[in-house]
Amino acid sequence: MKKKILVVDDEQNIRMLLREELTDEGYDVIEAENGAAAISAIKDQKPDLVTLDIKMPGEDGLSILRKIREIDYDLPVIICSAYSVYKSDFSAVAADHYIVKSSNFEDIKKKIAEILSYQTS
Amino acid sequence: MSSGANTDRSFAPSLDDEARERLRQIGSADIIVGIPSYNNGDTIGRVIRAAELGLAKYFPGHKGVIMISEGGSAEETSRAVEHLGDRRYFESAFITRPDRGTDIFVTKYRGLSGKGTAIKAVLEAGRILAVRAGCMLDSDLRSISPEWIELLIAPVLLKDFGFVAPYYSRHKYDGTITNMIAYPLTWSLYGRRVRQPIGGDFGFSPALMESLLAKNVWETDIARFGIDIWMTTVAICENFKICQSFLGAKIHDDKDPGKDLSPMFTQVVGTIFSLMSLYRDTWLRVRGSRPTAIFGFESEYAPKPLLVDSHNMIRKFQESASACRQVWERVLEKETCDKLLEVVSFEADRFELPVQLWIKSLYDFACAYERLPDGLARSDIIEALVPVYYAMTASFVRKTQNLDSQQAEEVITEQCREFEKLKPYLIECWSAHQQEGE
Predict the structure, then answer these.
(1) Which of A97, B3, B100, B146 has a CB 3.0–4.6 Å from the CB of B54, allowing a cystine?
(2) Given A70, A96, A117, which is nearest B290 (Cβ)?
(3) Average pLDDT of every residue of chain B
(4) Are B271 and B229 in contact (CB under 8 A)?
């Protein structure tokens, strides 16, 4: 069965690019543009992993991460932010991994595969 | 450390009759705050006041008990409680003193002297009082605030966590046994990133309390400094829901890692290695690592500088090398041992122990502790590891001397990732020994 990835980002272009890249890797991809949509998708569609932007209008990614941890303690989350500065925020330690966005998606694809492989092993 | 019959000395109560009578009078409680102490009369007053204020402010509808579990002079600690006097600190903290006050009492625990036995007495009291949550606080804390009680108790009471580990802002050179050994080994072995696995301040659920009390370990090093890593490891391996709470600064009595840490080192590392044997089925199948949820509010804080004498640690490493060489040669893989002996000759101003060499050495020591080469006692193995730990700590100090604490934290995180990457080496080494034994 295909693994399901939830991409949470307010920028449609980023969601689209990640969808294309991850679909090519054989994943099912669902999208959310803000915290409320993300939480709803997690509850309803039970993704296997979440990629999460931090800087978004309204609720930020670190606040969403706290909510995710309350809903699903074990759901893997990769923070995918344009800013490295949030890496030092203590809240970010609740994420499995922190990736600074770039045009190269190899890092995030590699990390997703690695984390999901632990789940199936 | 296997389970045994309840007639074992390990299960003898750590509470004396007087303490039991006191608990019987109290009847029941919702929350217990335990403070293990060993003659900490000078500092414990602050900790008790913070705990009492925290219970009143954050859990006014809950019945709280504060128990000081003393290993030294109960008289001196009782005087510190008497000095709390008329509780004027409630007024100055703008916190209403609840009608139903918090019971505070001091008891001298029975059994093997050490922090673990002090904690066992608190757990026994929590069982008698049928508490719904509990926490432990170190008695030499200088930076504690009432919020710590909320942060350690609320995840258990409100969110069903079984174990709440602390998460502190610490100076980059405070907690070197944590940073060099306990944190990376917990990360790599059990796949759980718990930043302070031997932090002395933590919250616990009644279920975890029962699980810990049921174990036949209280006559081992766990009854001393091994208690914290044991509790964290049990919580992880027995699938208790774990989180961390950000408590801010941890300021306590300073400890230079080059001085006076040997008993703590021996007990903590000995416990970690013993637990590797006990939980081998768990860690051998764990791959990768997972983060741990975190609660709290981060405030900007510059940790108090801690001066560390790296030259002293390098000197101790070099001076111990000839005495330890024979053990190193029997414990370490040949290549690792040769490289380590090369490092001995490095001058202090160029000194470096490569992190991969440190990790492989530590993994070899863990395997040797399990297989016990002929003629070596476990204490010999730990003793021979101490200088290598000094070398690693000195190397870390030199590498991070111009970095701020956040940058040093990134170095520690990278080291943990190296521990994770090199785990197959440990598995291979461990499994080879198991096959030899078959």
Answers:
(1) B146
(2) A96
(3) 91
(4) yes
For residue B219, is it within any domain? yes
Do both B99 and B56 map to the same domain?
yes
Asked whether this complex has an ipTM greater than 0.95, the answer is: no
Residues B284 and B419 in one domain: no
Q: For B321-351, how does the pLDDT look when each residue is reduced to its tens digit (9 = 90+)?
A: 999 999 999 999 999 999 999 999 999 999 9
What separation in angstroms does the CA of B421 have from each of B179, B289, B425? 17, 11, 9
Same domain, B319 and B255: no
Q: Which residues from chain A sit within 8 angstroms of residue B243, using beta carbons? A: 69
B160 touches chain A (CB under 8 A): no
Q: What's the gap in Å between the CA of B130 and the closest CA on chain A?
A: 26
Residues of chain A with Cβ-Cβ distance to B241 below 8 Å are: 73
**Owning domain of residue B76:** 9-296
Q: Report strand pairing: B242-249 vs B293-296.
A: parallel
B189-200 tens-digit pLDDT: 999 999 999 999
Least Cα distance to B287 among B162, B177, B420 occurs for B420
User: Are residues B47 and B194 located together in one domain of the fold?
Assistant: yes
Q: How many CB pairs under 8 A join A and B?
A: 43
* Assigned domain for B395 exists: yes
SS3 B149: helix
Q: What residues of chain B lie within 8 A of the CB of A64, using their CB? A: none
Report the chain B residue with the minimal C-alpha distance to residue A119.
B287
CATH number assigned to the domain covering A4-120: 3.40.50.2300
Pseudo-torsion of CA B265, B271, B274, B279, nearest 10°? -130
Cross-strand partners of B166: B245
Distance CA B409, CA B302 (A): 14
Of residues B197, B375, B162, B168, the one with CA closest to residue B275: B197
Which of A90, A116, A118, A121 is the best residue to mutate to test the B interface, defined by the most B CB atoms within 10 Å of its own CB? A90
Which residues of B are less than 8 Å from A88 in CB distance? 406, 409
Helix (H) / strand (E) containing A79: strand A77-81
Nearest-CB residue to A93 (from B191, B195, B241): B195
A93 with B159: Cβ contact below 8 A:
no
- For residues B58 and B174, state if they share a domain: yes
Least CB-CB distance to A73: which of B287, B293, B295?
A: B293
pTM: 0.90
Q: What is the Cα–Cα distance from A47 to B265, expressed in whole angstroms?
A: 43
Q: Do B267 and B388 reside in the same domain of the chain?
A: no
Angle between helices B17-26 and B115-129 (to 10 degrees): 40
Q: What is the pLDDT of residues B364-375, one digit of tens each?
A: 999 999 999 988
Residue type, B284: L
Q: Where are the alpha helices (DSSP H) in B135-261?
A: 147-159, 176-177, 183-190, 206-213, 227-237
- Of B296, B321, B336, the last residue of a domain is B296
Amino acid (1-letter code) at residue B75: E
